[in-house]
Automatic annotation (TrEMBL), chain A:
The active site is at C93 (glycyl thioester intermediate). PROSITE patterns: UBC_1, UBC_2. One of its GO terms (cellular component) is nucleus. It comes from the Eukaryota. This is UBC core domain-containing protein. Belongs to the ubiquitin-conjugating enzyme family. Residues 9-155 form the UBC core domain. GO terms for biological process: DNA damage tolerance; protein K63-linked ubiquitination. Pfam families: UQ_con. GO terms for molecular function: ATP binding; ubiquitin conjugating enzyme activity. Gene3D superfamilies: Ubiquitin Conjugating Enzyme (3.10.110.10). Keywords: ATP-binding, Nucleotide-binding, Transferase, Ubl conjugation pathway. It comes from Physcomitrium patens (Spreading-leaved earth moss).
Automatic annotation (TrEMBL), chain B:
GO terms for molecular function: ubiquitin conjugating enzyme binding; ubiquitin protein ligase activity; zinc ion binding. Pathway: Protein modification; protein ubiquitination. It holds the Pfam family Ariadne. Its EC number is 2.3.2.31. This is RBR-type E3 ubiquitin transferase. The lineage of its organism: Eukaryota, Viridiplantae, Streptophyta, Embryophyta, Bryophyta. Might act as an E3 ubiquitin-protein ligase, or as part of E3 complex, which accepts ubiquitin from specific E2 ubiquitin-conjugating enzymes and then transfers it to substrates. The gene is LOC112285813. It comes from Physcomitrium patens. Belongs to the RBR family. Ariadne subfamily. It comes from the Eukaryota. Residues 42-57 have a biased composition (Acidic residues). Residues 547-563, 570-580 have a biased composition (Low complexity).
């Protein structure tokens, strides 16, 4: 690792997690640390099949704060996405990123949970009020918009 | 809980109370006289039933009723009781509660602590829930019945699932669920929780799929001294902050808490630090005025809206720079403050240069008059006028409220100075044992209390609707009588006392002074008791007096509209007066002590000083 000198105090756990993410990536997910900062990851998640995000490639950023793993990683969508639990800044409403965080969870589990959230939007615990309302009043139309956005913003990386 | 709720709930039938299961609900209801007693009995019966369910091995529980009695209201009297608790008392209470639960449920003290914290320190709630469905409680709270047996014990080294490092088994630890992580990681986990706040008191296992409770023993066994202190602090605070029957004293820096026991009576109490406050709203004591009125009044006092009203009533924006300009002289020619210095007419807001002969002279503005006739200015003027009136009304009550508050503070300071110093001096000068001078401090205590009551009656008066004429009249009469009595007492305690302090020799008239001051104290107390009762009944007695009040001509005769809240000008400033007439039908005033006796109770002898009616 070329940037190891700039990240001398990287805990062993982060090194191990990184190695495993690179050597055994989860299906549909890729995460690679940035050259300059090994706590910052470029993440890509493929839209799950049979979801309105199918066929899309979604970029995210993930950052491990100083307190990690006692504190949760910070994750955000960079690709625009039409989803009731993700707001226009790409912030994600997911319990394990907040009060349900446990130090026994990992980057991998977090990303898998986000992937699952794409398959199962939850308009009852919304972050984006308007999208959630849309979802609840006319799900078919909302799903169509989500497909449209996937085509517009998440196709061809 | 608001007062209306209390009132309506208080009226609830005892059938309803019978159905109440927890003491918390009981609190909501503020059970009245017989209900309070009833609840206690029921609780005991319940516990009795619980104990006898396990009659076979009941002795194992060794349940001690006297123990519960320490924690439950011990008094059978249906009175509102407040207990001031120090930190030590709270820790003692916690230890007692834990001992009770430990005993009763046959569980460890650590588990008892977990249960009590989960159920907000309510012993009866822990009992109820546990015996209703122990399994469910265990699952919710995170108490495993049997420790998970760990096969890993044979392993020499284990990999920690948090730091991913290998550790010898001795360095690994786990709650009863058997989720082993290294000690360093557990410490970090608990440290993070403690620094996140009081949630650390109900901490669960670090494994995300597990809800096992992490008890006090494990927490305190792992963390630093500093974290231990924080944790025990939260533990102490939880007894007060989670418990609906206990609240902290609101005085800054005061470390006492106050426990409330349902009964009848007011919410007012005195903390050991000396603060007199309302248990319900934690504002300073405000009997006989209810919490809602007090909170409205306090909000009003700091509301910006009053400022806005003031500005609206007294100022207009400068037509050039738009800053509000206050008109402070009679002249309509206004010059805006520097740097603007724009000169304009207050009435029409036109430039002053346009004024003069053409507008009807410098002191009149016919532009305004004309515009007013055309109705252009009416709305703005009307609003300004209204704001001014409501402001004047508010100012009237506020001034009296505030003056009585400063009078009270002054009297309190006087009393504090009085107690050691002046009393001894008086004892010296008048050759009286200190024990014989209690009537002086009694008088001052009465003054302080009366000033407090009087102060709050002005907040009450402000919210008493103007159109409730009879009630207002009765209110102002009672307030006026009480206030006049208080002024006499305050005067006597202040001025008369001074002469005995200054005189060189014992005076024979000192005994007269004693009789007078003690009499005034007692009379004033009676007046205020009546006033307090009247306001607490929301002036409902007024209906009984309506007949007698018919002849009264003016409602402005007494009370708030003319009295000062400060010091009286003379002795009995309120003899006679037009509102006297209705009172004469039912009352007579004692010549000796001025007490207004009711003809119904005694028509010949004063019930206060026993002097015959002249
Ligand atoms: Zn566990
Ligand atoms: Zn570890
Ligand atoms: Zn206090
Ligand atoms: Zn109150
Ligand atoms: Zn100006
Ligand atoms: Zn003018
Ligand atoms: Zn008398």
């Amino acid at each position: 690792m070329s940037a190891a000198t700039a990240n001398t105090n990287l805990p062993r756990r982060i090194i191990k997690e990184t190695q495993r993410l690179l050597s055994e990536p989860a299906p549909g997910i890729s995460a690679s640390p940035s050259e300059e900062n090994l706590r910052y990851f470029n993440v890509m998640i493929l839209g799950p099949s049979q979801s309105p995000y199918e066929g899309g490639v979604f970029k995210l950023e993930l950052f491990l704060p100083e307190e990690y793993p006692m504190a949760a990683p910070k994750v955000r969508f960079l690709t625009k996405i039409y989803h009731p639990n993700i707001d226009k800044l790409g912030r994600i409403c997911l319990d394990i990123l907040k009060d349900k965080w446990s130090p026994a969870l990992q980057i991998r589990t977090v990303l898998l949970s986000i992937q699952a959230l794409l398959s199962a939007p939850n308009p009852d615990d919304p972050l984006a009020e308007n999208i959630a309302k849309h979802w609840k009043t006319n799900e078919q139309e909302a799903v169509e918009t989500a497909r449209e956005w996937t085509r517009l913003y998440a196709s061809g990386a | 809980m608001n007062v209306e709720e209390v009132k309506s709930r208080r009226a609830a039938s005892s059938i309803e109370l019978r159905n109440m299961e927890s003491e918390d609900e009981m609190l909501d209801a503020w059970a009245g006289t017989s209900d309070g007693e009833f609840q206690n009995k029921e609780e005991e019966e319940e516990l009795d039933a619980l104990a006898s369910d396990d009659e076979n091995d009941g002795s194992d529980y060794g349940f001690d009723y006297s123990n519960i009695d320490d924690i439950q209201p011990s008094s059978r009297l249906p009175q509102t009781n407040f207990t001031v608790l120090s930190e030590k008392d709270i820790r003692h209470r916690q230890a007692e509660a834990i001992a009770t639960i430990t005993n009763f449920l046959s569980i460890s003290p650590v588990d008892a602590g977990v249960l009590l914290r989960y159920f907000k320190w309510s012993i009866s709630k822990v009992n109820d829930e546990w015996f209703a469905d122990e399994e469910r409680v265990r699952a919710n709270v995170g108490l495993l019945e049997k420790p998970a047996t760990s096969k890993r014990k044979i392993d020499k080294e284990m990999t920690c699932g948090i730091c991913f490092e290998g550790h010898p088994f001795e360095k690994m630890t786990a709650p009863r669920c058997g989720h082993y992580f290294c000690e360093t990681c557990w410490t970090g986990y608990i440290h993070t929780a403690i620094n996140d706040g009081p949630g650390c008191l109900t901490l669960r296992c670090a494994d995300p799929s597990c809800g096992a409770a992490v008890g006090e023993d494990m927490v305190l066994g792992l963390v630093s001294n500093e974290d231990q202190q924080k944790y025990t602090r939260y533990l102490l605070r939880s007894y007060v902050e989670d418990n609906r029957k206990v609240k902290w004293c609101p005085a800054p820096g005061c470390e006492y808490a106050v426990e409330y026991q349902p009964g009848v009576g007011s919410y007012d109490l005195v903390c050991k630090c000396g603060l007199n406050f309302c248990w319900n709203c934690r504002e300073e004591a405000h009997r006989p005025v209810d919490c809602e009125t007090v909170n409205k009044w306090i909000l009003k006092n700091c509301a910006e809206s009053e400022n806005m009203n003031w500005i609206l009533a007294n100022s207009k924006p400068c037509p050039k720079c738009k800053r509000p300009i206050e008109k402070n002289q009679g002249c309509m020619h206004i010059t805006c403050t520097p740097p603007c210095k724009h000169e304009f007419c207050w009435l029409c807001l036109g430039a002053w240069t346009d004024h003069g002969e053409r507008t009807g002279g410098f002191y009149a503005c016919n532009r305004y008059e004309t515009a007013k006739q055309e109705g252009v200015y009416d709305e703005a003027e009307r609003r300004r006028e209204m704001a001014k009136n409501s402001l004047e009304r508010y100012t009237h009550y506020y001034e009296r409220w505030a003056t009585n508050e400063s009078s009270r503070a002054k009297a309190l300071a006087d009393l504090q100075q009085m107690q050691p110093v002046q009393i001894e001096k008086l004892s010296d000068k008048q050759c009286q044992p200190v024990s014989q001078l209690k009537f002086v401090t009694d008088a001052w205590l009465q003054i302080v209390e009366c000033r407090r009551v009087l102060k709050w009656t002005y907040a009450y008066g402000y919210y008493l609707p103007e159109n409730e004429h009879t009630k207002r009249q009765f209110f102002e009469y009672s307030q006026g009588e009480a206030e006049a009595g208080l002024e006499r007492l305050h005067q006597c305690a202040e001025k008369d006392l001074q002469t005995f302090l200054e005189g060189d020799n014992p005076t024979s008239s000192f005994n007269d002074f004693r009789t007078k001051l003690a009499g005034l104290t007692s009379v004033t107390r009676t007046y205020f008791e009546n006033l307090v009762r009247a306001l607490e009944n929301n002036l409902s007695d007024v209906d009984n007096l309506k007949g007698a009040a018919k002849s009264s001509s003016s409602s402005k005769a007494s009370g708030s509209s003319k009295s000062r809240g400060g010091r009286a000008k003379g002795g009995s400033s309120r003899s006679g007066g037009s509102s006297r007439s209705w009172e004469e039908a039912t009352h007579w005033s004692c010549e000796h002590c001025t007490y207004a006796n009711t003809t119904a109770t005694s028509s010949t002898v004063c019930i206060i000083c026993q002097y015959p009616r002249s």
